[in-house]
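Q: I have 292 residues here and want to know how they pack in 3D. Can you give me a structure?
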Amino acid sequence: MGPRAVPVLFVLLWSTGFIGARLGVPHAPPLVFLTLRFAAVIMLMALIAVAMRAPWPRGCEAWANIGIAGLLMHGLYLGGVFIAISQGLPAGVTSLVVGLQPLLTAVVAAGWLGDRLRGRQWAGLALGFVGVALVVSRQFGGGLGIGQSGGGFAAGGLPAALLALLAITAGTLWQKRRCPSFDWRTGLVVQFIPATIATALAAALTEPLQVRWTGEFIFALGWLVLVLSLGAVTLLNTLIRAGSAVDSASLFYLVPPVTALLAWALFGERLTPLSLAGMALAAAGVWLARGK
């Protein structure tokens, strides 16, 4: 796959995560859903790694660093997003909160990783955030989150969304600094082990362990396992390895616009002229921030 195709495919696949969550969460509590997803990834990737004789990380330090990155980027990030939406925070507002990641990553990376950003990159990060805000702006006046039965802005999930923001930012920076290169087949297994353990414990303590195994739920689970946790996460690891932390983080500005387009195509959700303008600004911001 060419280097220009990887970011495009990553954004497209990552953006389908909300669609899968929308289909699956009504049939299972969010953390139970994620535990099943993570466990399926471990079993599938372990079989692939053994069959292909992929090399495993060497030493306890490598296992720990990859595991910490996985706990942050998968366990805490996805757990925070799913809980925020299930508690009534509109998906668009959740996307806006998590959309602060590129800006937060840039600020931390400047001090921790020594990344120096040019003026056009800072302008691109700011422009991208404005674009994301425009895309999701209609949801501030009321909207439905996954599992929400009525309209209105429910802020109960805001702490979980903030946790997701901090987790994905810290996970991206941790992986870039501590474990930028590892075999993706065995690395995914190592990443998802601590994420699965932590999510399963949280689910057992806070949620009813009930699942309705409908066709819709099985499709959503399969999609999130194969397309998101295997396809998109592998591409994210590739992007983190190949570029700066800001380069990979800035792509997250494109996720809400692409998700909005998918929701329009699949569920008939309305796209306003303001949303379309926001998509254009977000794309321009990413172009500036990546400095390509």
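Q: Anything worth noting?
A: The longest helix spans residues 215-242. The two ends are 18 Å apart (CA to CA).
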